Amino acid sequence: MVKSEVRHSADSLEPRLRKLNRKQKKTKAKKEATRRVPLPGSFRHSWRSLKVIKQYWPPLFGIMAVYLILNVIFASGISSLNAAVNDIKFNLEISDSENLSPLGTALSGFSNLVASAGTSGSSTGSVLQTFLIVIVSLVLIWALRHLLAGKKVRVKQAYYSAMSPLIPFLLVLVVIFIQLLPVLIGVPLASAILAAVFPSGGALASLTLIAVSVSFLGWSLYMLSSSVFSIYIVTLPDMPPRRALKSAKDLVKFRRWTLMRRLIYLPIFILVVMGLIVVPLIIYATFLVAPVFFGLGVLSLLFIHVYLYTLYRELIK
Q1: What span, in angstroms and rounded, lies between the C-alpha atoms of 103 and 282?
Q2: What is the mean pLDDT of residues 283-292?
Q3: For the chain, which residues make up each domain, given as ranges?
Q4: What backbone phi and psi angles, to 5 degrees, belong to 16?
Q5: By C-alpha distance, which of 311, 283, 257, 3 is closest to 149?
Q6: pTM value?
Q7: pLDDT of 212-258, one tens digit each?
Q8: For residue 110, what are the contacts with CB-CB under 8 A and spacing of at least 6?
């Protein structure tokens, strides 16, 4: 499998013997795209990803167990969740005293939990959490590549062997962060400008903000639809970041919109599943909310990488 990935990345960059103009290149690329194996639907691909996790659960769960322990010990990953749960308990008590529906309070509490996920009580804890996510991502990519190639993987072996492409991986993540700037900066900036232009608010200001936000989100998502796969390409042997980004761009050519739908689906699917589990716990067993939500967050990171890596394998077929 690794050889086929390297061959695909190398073939996408080999110079052509006959130089084609831009129109001819585009026509040829379209023909090649139509000959590729169609991508599975989002639900079907989610099911395949869950089957991969089920098939290889001992090493994958072992990797995530190490990550969970390190997160709790060094990054205090569950401390911010405990603070959010205390706020939820307080809001539930208020809703009971005022005879309000607990479902609305539970949904609001779930959104607060999602907002607090990945944060820590200190800046050092947040940095450590980010570092641990990078490390476990490299380990999962290495493990998935070898497991799906039919090789046996041990947890210790995965953590020892997966760190060699750390610097190229980080450089690709920097590019991905830059591609997120339209959403991270553009939307708040547009909101501030519209608040100054329309101090009283109104429907026009709201519609304009929605249009601008959707535009910035679409711009970032369009760029991410290729670069997100470069994090898997750059972990191949002797793969520089620029070449990985170029290979990913060639890989998704004429299939960006299909991939964008699958990328939009991924966080929605995860949030719905987590909500179906956590919201009832908020109402009936609040003491379980923090550990269950934290565990689901760890499993979500595993599912994200399995989903994206198996989607990447579908692209190179």
Answers
A1: 9
A2: 89
A3: 41-163+269-317, 164-253
A4: -85, 145
A5: 3
A6: 0.85
A7: 888 999 999 999 999 999 999 999 999 999 999 999 999 998 888 88
A8: 274, 275, 278, 279, 282
